[in-house]
Each structure stands twice: as structure tokens, then as C-alpha cells.
Write a sequence for this structure.
């Protein structure tokens, strides 16, 4: 196979993916994550600090939206699995039709209509419900392409690695929002206008970019239809313990007692001429971006240390130990801030590979389910990724709302440039640094039940090859009989 980094046009044989397709797929995930990262990262902040909505009301709205949509996600996944589709074209149509809808809805959420608080709550509730509904179809279709990209587990891991890098790149770009915001504020634009401009940049631009994923082909033949109902498709999940324990592990992280990082940086960090917004950008760049190159070697690392599961275990053990050390180091001087940021960069070295491991293990588990039940479950399996993300976000959002209320956070004082009360300031550092430790400990408990056996995967692939060959032979035999 001739190759030059990512841009090879030749493959190793049947079932392997040309790198130009992976690049298109990865850029599509980058676009989707531009939209999702901006909406999930800044819409709550926009509602509380710019529209001055009550934090508990905001927390309740988003929790209700997340819970409703999380419950709806597996149903959407089952519908995707049951939809009549052309061979090798199960998920790709969603990559063309849904991005324009999401672009319009996400942009509308950041437009200020100067409504009363109750009307604003209703407006955000309705638009966010709509966003989550259409996003679920897009998300299932995008991530569900990984198990359909190749019948080979090692090739699916390679695809998962590169598209996770693409998705991470989208999040990194949104990480520059605070810098863009500060520059536009300095140019004389008010915050509400800045948020709307960035919605055009990140949400509309992101959805246009996400349409690139349509170029990724599906290479796994679907098994014969069995006529199962949507409910039966959902019940197939009980045959997938890997997916169940990954979902429980991820969900448990939502119970970490913390609030968005912006509250800590904007209210507690002042280092010489560097304000909190700049410090947050520096922290994000150093602790996140510097760890990104590790993602390029995720499959090699997994091979060296004994599998994707060990990446997950090591990431959280690193997080627990180094966050405790960083807490005692502190942050209130430039040397301390540098050491703290360096420690978080080390935490993110294995942490950056977690999503790759989750998706790789989930893709392999779909093969195991097909062997057990004769059904392919890309839709319902990857809808569980969305389900878990939203349930986790719902739990953390509700906790955040009550924490802000309990600590007496005042958004009006923030807008006027006044300092928050002493109790609020006191708890920001412990929550910022030690809050996630709670989630890491819970995660380690659940993820320990996941099985990751390389030899078993190879045996499953062999049996599926034989079954698919037999299905194809049977189909050809029936076609020949009918033609006679």
C-alpha cells in the first residue's frame, strides 16, 4: 500500500478504507463538533449571563430537554436501523438532509428577541428540543458509519482514530471563542452581537462542513431483514454488555460537583496583565491542544499496552492522581498556573484517546451482537452514545444550576464588572480541580466490567465472514431460481 501520511488513495484490499474518504469523514465530524461544542458549551452561559435568566430555570430547561431527548435517542436509533434503505446506503442520506436544518435552529437559539424571562424560557425550551431532535439523527448517522466502514476490527479502529481527531479539531476551534470574543468586544461589539456572529461562524459553518461525511462509503453488508419491531430493536441492546457498561461509566461522570470552567476563570483568575478569558484560552490550548498529537498514535498505543480498555483505565487513574496534586499546587501565581496547566496537559495525554477507545469498542461490540442475533445495530448502538452524552449533560446541568444558586451567583454583578460574593469565590477552585475526580472514580468502577479480547474479536470476524458468504450464496440461489 502506497501512502503519504493521511492522503493515500490505495488500500490494502477489500474492506479497507482509502485515506481520502477518511479525511472527508473526519472533516464532517469536525464540522458537526463545531456546532455541538458551541451550543453545548455556551448556550447556557448565554442564557444566564446575557439574557439574565434564573440559573435554576436554565438548569431545569436544559435538564428537561436532555432527559426527553436522551430517552428519545434510542428510539431514533431503532428507527434508523429499521428504515428501508438501499444496500450500503443505510446512514449516508442523513449527512445531506439534516445539516441545513440544524444550522438554522442553532443560529436561532443565539438571537435575542428581547422577550420576557418566561417567554425566553419557553423559546429556548422549544428551539433546544428541536435542535436535539434533529441532532440525534445526524449524530447517529455520523458515528454509526464507523462499524459500517470496514468488516475488519483493526481498520475500524483506524477509522475511529481519525474521525475522533476530526471531531476533536472542531472542539479545539470552538476553544478559541473566548479570544474571538475578547477581540470583538475590544472592537466595540456588545456580547450579544458577538455570540450571534460566532453562531454564524461555528454553527452554520460547521453544518456546511459536516456534509463532507457523505463521501464516506459503507462496506459492511446488512444481514437479511427479520421484520423486528422498533421495540425489538431496542431490546437487542441487552445482548451488548460492552455498550451498557461504557454508557454507565460515561453517565457516572455527570455527577461530578462542578460548574463550567468559565465561572472559575472569569471570576477567580487574574495573573498580571492576563485576564480570566485569556487565561482560559491559554489553559485550553496547553492542556488540550498539546495532547492532541497523542490521538494520532491511539491504535499503536492500544496495541502496545494491551487494548483499548487499558487506555480508558489509565486515563482516569492519571486524572485522579494528577488533579489531586494540581489542587495542592494552586493557580494564583504565574509559576503555579504554569505547573497546574502542565499537569492537566499530562492528564489529557491518555484522556484525548478516550473517545477513540469508546467508539472502537462499541464498533466491535456491534459485530458480536450480529453474531448473537443476526441483526446490525449501528443506529441504536450509536444512539446510546448520544443518549449517554445528553443524560450526562442533563445531570451536570441540573447540578450546576443548583450549585450556582446555592453559592449566590449574580449574573447582573458579572455584567457590571463587580466581584461575586466570598462563598462563590471560595468554592470555585475545589470544584474546578477536584470535582471531576468524583466522576473519574465512578467511571473506573463501571469500565472495569468491559471485556476487550483481541482473539475473540478475530473469531467473531471469521464467523461473520462465513455467515455473510452463505447469505450471499443463498440470495444468489434464490435469484437464479426466480429467473428460471
Amino acid at each position: 500500500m502506497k501512502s503519504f501520511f493521511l492522503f493515500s488513495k490505495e488500500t490494502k484490499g477489500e474492506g479497507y478504507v482509502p485515506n481520502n474518504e477518511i479525511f472527508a469523514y473526519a472533516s464532517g465530524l469536525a464540522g458537526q463538533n463545531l456546532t455541538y461544542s458551541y451550543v453545548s458549551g455556551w448556550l447556557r452561559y448565554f442564557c444566564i449571563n446575557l439574557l439574565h435568566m434564573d440559573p435554576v430555570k436554565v438548569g431545569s430547561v436544559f435538564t428537561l430537554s436532555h432527559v426527553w431527548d436522551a430517552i428519545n435517542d434510542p428510539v431514533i436509533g431503532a428507527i434508523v436501523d429499521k428504515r428501508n434503505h438501499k444496500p450500503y446506503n443505510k446512514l449516508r442520506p442523513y449527512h445531506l438532509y439534516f445539516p441545513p436544518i440544524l444550522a438554522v435552529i442553532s443560529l436561532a437559539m443565539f438571537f435575542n428577541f428581547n422577550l420576557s424571562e418566561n417567554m425566553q424560557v419557553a423559546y429556548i425550551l422549544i428551539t433546544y428540543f428541536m435542535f436535539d431532535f434533529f441532532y440525534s439523527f445526524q449524530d447517529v448517522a455520523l458515528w454509526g458509519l464507523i462499524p459500517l466502514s470496514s468488516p475488519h476490527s483493526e481498520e475500524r479502529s483506524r477509522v475511529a482514530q481519525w474521525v475522533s481527531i476530526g471531531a476533536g479539531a472542531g472542539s479545539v476551534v470552538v476553544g478559541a471563542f473566548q479570544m474571538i470574543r475578547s477581540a470583538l468586544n475590544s472592537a466595540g461589539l456588545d456580547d450579544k452581537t458577538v455570540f450571534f456572529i460566532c453562531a454564524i461562524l461555528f454553527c452554520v459553518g460547521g453544518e456546511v462542513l459536516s456534509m463532507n461525511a457523505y463521501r464516506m462509503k459503507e462496506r459492511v453488508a446488512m444481514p437479511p431483514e427479520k421484520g423486528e419491531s422498533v421495540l425489538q430493536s431496542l431490546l437487542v441492546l441487552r445482548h451488548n454488555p460492552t455498550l451498557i457498561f461504557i454508557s454507565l461509566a460515561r453517565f457516572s461522570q455527570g455527577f461530578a460537583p462542578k460548574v463550567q470552567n468559565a465561572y472559575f476563570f472569569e471570576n477567580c483568575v487574574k495573573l498580571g496583565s492576563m485576564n480570566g478569558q485569556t487565561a482560559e484560552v491559554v489553559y485550553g490550548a496547553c492542556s488540550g491542544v498539546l495532547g492532541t498529537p497523542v490521538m494520532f498514535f491511539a491504535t499503536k498505543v492500544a496495541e502496545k499496552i494491551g487494548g483499548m480498555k487499558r487506555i480508558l483505565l489509565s486515563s482516569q487513574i492519571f486524572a485522579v492522581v494528577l488533579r489531586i496534586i494540581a489542587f495542592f499546587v494552586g493557580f494564583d501565581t504565574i509559576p503555579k498556573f504554569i505547573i497546574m496547566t502542565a499537569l492537566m496537559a499530562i492528564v489529557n495525554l491518555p484522556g484525548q484517546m478516550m473517545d477513540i477507545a469508546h467508539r472502537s469498542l462499541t464498533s466491535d461490540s456491534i459485530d458480536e451482537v450480529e453474531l448473537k442475533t443476526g441483526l446490525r445495530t449501528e443506529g441504536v448502538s450509536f444512539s446510546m452514545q448520544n443518549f449517554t452524552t445528553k443524560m450526562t449533560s442533563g445531570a451536570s446541568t441540573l447540578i450546576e444550576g443548583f450549585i450556582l444558586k446555592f453559592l449566590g451567583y449574580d449574573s447582573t454583578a458579572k455584567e457590571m464588572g463587580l466581584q461575586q460574593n466570598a462563598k462563590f469565590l471560595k468554592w470555585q477552585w475545589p470544584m474546578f480541580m477536584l470535582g471531576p475526580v468524583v466522576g473519574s472514580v465512578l467511571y473506573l468502577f463501571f469500565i472495569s466490567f468491559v471485556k476487550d479480547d483481541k482473539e475473540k474479536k478475530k473469531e467473531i470476524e471469521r464467523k461473520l465472514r462465513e455467515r455473510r458468504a452463505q447469505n450471499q450464496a443463498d440470495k444468489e440461489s434464490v435469484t437464479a431460481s426466480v429467473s428460471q
